[in-house]
Amino acid sequence: MAHDILIYGDIGPSYSWWDDEETGITGEWMAQQLADVPVGESEVNIRVNSPGGICSEGLTIRNQLRVYASRKKLSNPNFKLNGIVDGYAYSAGGVVLLGCDKIIMMSGSLFMVHNCSGMVWGNAQDLLAGAAYYQKVDGELANILALKTGKKEADMKALLDAETFFSPEEAKVIGLCDEIDTAIVSPENRSRYGEIFTKASPTNYK
């Protein structure tokens, strides 16, 4: 059975007033999650249900996953890093998945891409500089979407500009999604998710 890492929530740090500590789904958090994967594990699932969050953290995690998978494949060419959309993969929540070998969307899930956003305070020059910065980030987002889909950067930028939501079927057509999982019992799902499907199914595997 594959090892699951759950990204359920906002991407980026969050502060707990009750515990007086900073937590959240950050690059630091992901580094620890990857370090905790059992030695010899041949398949890891990055399971996502996220409304998005901080773009820089999403990009950091995406790149961590790419490097992690590449290193694992040096010793095990059959290693798999799956990105699974359990619910929403919006904004930075979708960016993290772009570091996975394969993106699988569960039926009923959604994927959303849009331009980054933020706040700029100051005079006219400050505002212009802020706009130039955000445009540069948007260009990088278009680039990594193009790398995933095989489409033109200009086409990906148009999707970002429009803030585009994708059903699993729509995402698969454009190349964002590699597989749609309807949770039908199959030997592949048994390997991916474990015995949960065996227990839920009236039929046994052969």
Brief characterization of the structure:
The protein is of the alpha/beta class and 206 residues long. The chain has eight helices and nine strands. The radius of gyration is 18 Å and the shape is globular.
Question: How is this structure best described in words?
Answer:
- There is one protein chain.
- A hairpin with a 4-residue loop joins strand 2 (12-16) and strand 3.
- 29% of the residues are buried.
- Helices cover 43% and strands 24% of the residues.
- It has eight helices and nine strands.
- It has helices at 27-35, 55-75, 92-95, 124-149, 153-162, 168-174, 187-193, 196-200; strands spanning 3-8, 12-16, 21-25, 43-50, 80-90, 102-106, 110-113, 164-166, 179-181.
- The strands form two sheets. Strands 1, 4, 5, 6, 7, 8 and 9 form a seven-stranded mixed beta sheet that branches. A two-stranded antiparallel sheet has the order 2-3.
- The two termini are 17 Å apart.
- The chain has 206 residues and is α/β, with parallel strands linked by helices.
- Helix 1 (27-35) packs parallel to helix 2 (55-75) and helix 4 (124-149) packs across helix 5 (153-162).
- It is globular, with a radius of gyration of 18 Å.
Helical percentage: 40-55%
Backbone structural class: alpha/beta
What amount of the residues lies in strands?
Answer: 15-25%
**Total of helices:** 8
Radius of gyration: 18 Å
Q: N-to-C SSE series?
A: EEEHEHEHEEHHEHEHH
- Specify the overall morphology: globular
Number of strands: 9
Point out poorly predicted stretches. Answer: 195-206
Average pLDDT over all residues: 89
Q: Distance between termini?
A: 17 Å
